[in-house]
UniProtKB/TrEMBL annotation, chains A, B:
This is Polyprenyl synthetase. It comes from Sphaerobacter thermophilus (strain ATCC 49802 / DSM 20745 / KCCM 41009 / NCIMB 13125 / S 6022). It comes from the Bacteria. GO terms for biological process: isoprenoid biosynthetic process. The keyword Magnesium applies.
Amino acid sequence: MLSVMRADVARVEDRLREEVRVDFPFVGEILQGLIEAGGKRLRPLLLLLAARPFNYVFERLLPAAVGVELLHTASLIHDDTVDKAMLRRGRPTLNSLFNTETVILLGDYIFARSAMMAAATQNPRVVQVFASSLAHICDGQLREIFTARELQQSIDDYRKRIFGKTASLFAGSAEMGAILGEANDEQIDALRRFGGHLGMAFQIVDDVLDLRESTDQIGKPAGLDLRQGTITLPTMLFFQLNRGNGRHAELVRRVVGGHDATDEDYATATAVIRESGALEHALEIAAEYVRNAKEELRAIPAGEGRDMLEVLADHSLSRTS
Amino acid sequence: MLSVMRADVARVEDRLREEVRVDFPFVGEILQGLIEAGGKRLRPLLLLLAARPFNYVFERLLPAAVGVELLHTASLIHDDTVDKAMLRRGRPTLNSLFNTETVILLGDYIFARSAMMAAATQNPRVVQVFASSLAHICDGQLREIFTARELQQSIDDYRKRIFGKTASLFAGSAEMGAILGEANDEQIDALRRFGGHLGMAFQIVDDVLDLRESTDQIGKPAGLDLRQGTITLPTMLFFQLNRGNGRHAELVRRVVGGHDATDEDYATATAVIRESGALEHALEIAAEYVRNAKEELRAIPAGEGRDMLEVLADHSLSRTS
């Protein structure tokens, strides 16, 4: 169904590659590789699709679509420095190739390119959404750092944190697409909420995959959240399910606290969370977000555009990498 | 002469403080302190002054003026991480208080706030100048990293590097002010060049101060450039003056190369550069930039606004911190 979008997404990819061309030896190739390794271009796709039911003018959407993917890439680069991750999308991270200094500046450089793309839309409202998405992303990432290893946080804290970190750019992408497609204000708001719910579902599924899949499968180190003390929904639900009592809960608490945890401890902690039913419960909550997202589509005229948005929403639940 | 601007700069300061208000404990206070420690607000002042000979509407200029100072602050935060500087503007850097991860994200957060300010101008042309200034800054900082300890670079390489790192935001600030003041295109271009020349002079003076003054005087560690292998204009001129020959040149080469240099070596290298006349020569080049800057003011209507721009240009040469 989404294959009708393939050609336009390919044009976004071409432009992405052009935008990260730099004349520093070596760095240029690395950035190209990073862009080519890719990921699913979900944010540009969402942005394009949000305009599809309205006045879809690809050339007008292109800079914004490139901009959101660059913004996402820049934030991954900085996040990998933060996470000290050595692997992302199945490839070595910049962090494993350059010193921190260089990685920070390369991330900043990609931020700058993304801001230029936002500016190129010549649309003040789009620029405003873009800038506030960036602020939300930073806020979410800071929350993640400041709440690490903190067992007293609530599921609401988690929601707030992942809204910033992930859902805000999904919300912003959909909103920008709708604005550039000249939807009316009610439709723009509905699509913003659609994107936000979708982003929440996407991040919850990501947090489940981190505990459920292998490193090979997800292209980044599995179980990273536990190791970093990032307390995600499945872990919170695990504590709820066993009321925080017992030997298993004690182990997970110790592992998340980072106190003398061995590799075996991490493996056991992952296993007991998996076996508790917490992953299934988390996926139900993700499914609820997808249902809420689809509800928002009522404000959108029926047709192929709306159908594709539905397909995209369903897809966010069924992914395994 | 510039005192007539004091009230408006104070309003910029108030807004700056508001913009870095965050609800993370501790971080908020640190950011407030960082903003209060201040610096000279040269970029906002330049932006305001560039509008002064035209249609000066303070409320329209305010977001852009706050935006350029936030952009500058964000880039200092990341630069301090890069430099591993423990002192800036006479205060401990964020880098000395938080881990690298947090500092990167706080810098990103300030970037985001600055982008929101640019967006708040609602002026696509201003947003575009803003974004491209950011790209130039990153480019300049990357050049600085990639040319560190590289003795084969030319004075033209140096000019290109400091244009990116410093002068681009001066050029951009003046350009944004002129755009928002509704100057005509010729005047906007002239003011952009004025700002660029001013920024070049400013950075050259900075590079001289790094070698000439004490840590107390400049509020950051003196002699940092030599230690980091950043080859600045005075060092280049030093090599030119003695044709790269002799015991002194050999010492400076070794120190800049970073090979087993002791604290005493750094002190001696600083002394021989000072005594070579290279600092005076560098200041003459800075003075030439200031002259070129003032030439550009011919395109601007005579009056108090233009006079203040001239004073600002002269001031960039006479500063000692």
